[in-house]
Each structure stands twice: as structure tokens, then as C-alpha cells.
Amino acid sequence: MRFDHVAQEVPDIAEAVAWQMRTVPGSTVLYQDSTWALVQSGGAKLAFVLPGQHPSHLAFRVGAAELERLAAEHGVEIATHRDATRSIYLQGPGSLATEIITYPDADAD
Amino acid sequence: MRFDHVAQEVPDIAEAVAWQMRTVPGSTVLYQDSTWALVQSGGAKLAFVLPGQHPSHLAFRVGAAELERLAAEHGVEIATHRDATRSIYLQGPGSLATEIITYPDADAD
To answer: Which residues contact B63 (CB under 8 A, 6 or more apart)?
Structure first.
């Protein structure tokens, strides 16, 4: 299980991306629309999401079979997202949920 | 500027560490006392702190000279922490502050 990204809720996606690009020089936008964005910043992937769409979270990447196993172990449903990733969310010890995610092209991880 | 760690406020440090170790197999404790902890988890460093001590944040590592420059640019004071790291906090676009941190042994980064 490998750390994949940190996501946080922000009121305005474009403003958040602009702030990140200005604050951490060399950041690059991997994806952006009006509802979410993914920025590579200092070697880490940071997601910005609108409130209510996803909880703020830490994501860890696994293979598809491992995601199935963990979903059963934790008794939660796997959700399929707009970008074809699949994941579960676990309530963590603080304000950041833990997402366990698998990518469409991931056979194992 | 390189991504260094994610910190989040939790009500109980020991419980948070136990949760992380259980949820992400292979996690290791880098530091732990009753007031904060640092866990290596899936290749990333996650800090757990008590409410009111530090804000939940994303930390980026720089050299000492760059920290001085950024503190002046942003007009904020550099704080020295218990572990001899020095940093500034900037209010980010969401609930996670951005910490710019330098380590005692970092001449440049």
C-alpha cells in the first residue's frame, strides 16, 4: 500500500490551484476543471475538491484484488469515480479520511 | 521545495498511531510521545498532533536560506520547534495550512 495523494475541500478550485502554484514553485497541474483539480507539488499529488463531493483525505494506492479484500474486511462498498478509479473511504483518527484507491491500469501494487 | 509530511490534529495520539499501523500494513513509528507522533506510512510521513498545538497542515522542506527568504516574502515569523526544526505556516486555500520547514542539518534543499 503506497501513499498516493492528499485531498482537501476548498471553496474555489481555480483559486486553490493558483495559490498552490504561487506558493510552491515548480508545481504542475495534472488535471483541473471547475469541480476538482490535481496538482503535483514538491513531488506529491495534492487534490482540491469542492465541499460535499469527497471528504478531505489521505489516499493510499493498492491493486484491484487488494481493494476487494480490504472492502470486505472493513465492510464498506467500493465506489467508482469519474476518472475510473475505484476506492473505499475509511474514517481515520482525525479530520482526514483514509482513501484506499486502485487505478484502472493497476493489476497489482 | 519538496513535500515533507502531512499533519493532522487528532484527539488521542496513541489511538491514532495504532489506527494507522493497523490500516496501512508496514507503517513504522519514527517518533511518538503523548503530544505528537510521526509515522512512516506507505512511503509518506504522517504526523499526528493534539488540537491547538499545531494546525493540520501540509509541510514542504526547504534549506535554511530559502526559509529566511520566504518568511520575509510572506511577512511571517519563523518558529523553532521542539525537535529543532524551524518553520513558517501559511494559511492555505482549504483546512490544511502549508508549513515551509527546514531541518537543522539542511544547508540547502
So the answer is: B102, B106, B107, B108, B109
**Whole-prediction pTM:** 0.91
Contacts B40 to A, Cβ<8 Å: none
Q: Collapse the DSSP code of A66 into the 3-class scheme (helix H, G, I; strand E, B; otherwise coil) and give the result.
A: helix
Burial of B39 by CB count in 10 Å (0-12 exposed, 13-18 middle, 19+ buried)? Answer: buried
Which chain B residue's Cα is nearest to A18? B93
Query: For cell 515551509, what's the residue?
Result: B100
The ipTM assigned to this model is 0.90
Q: Would you give the end-to-end CA distance of chain B in angstroms?
A: 7
Which candidate in A69, A96, A99 is best for mutational testing of the B interface (most B CBs within 10 A)? A96
Cα of A84 to nearest chain B Cα, Å: 22
User: What's residue A72's pLDDT?
Assistant: 97
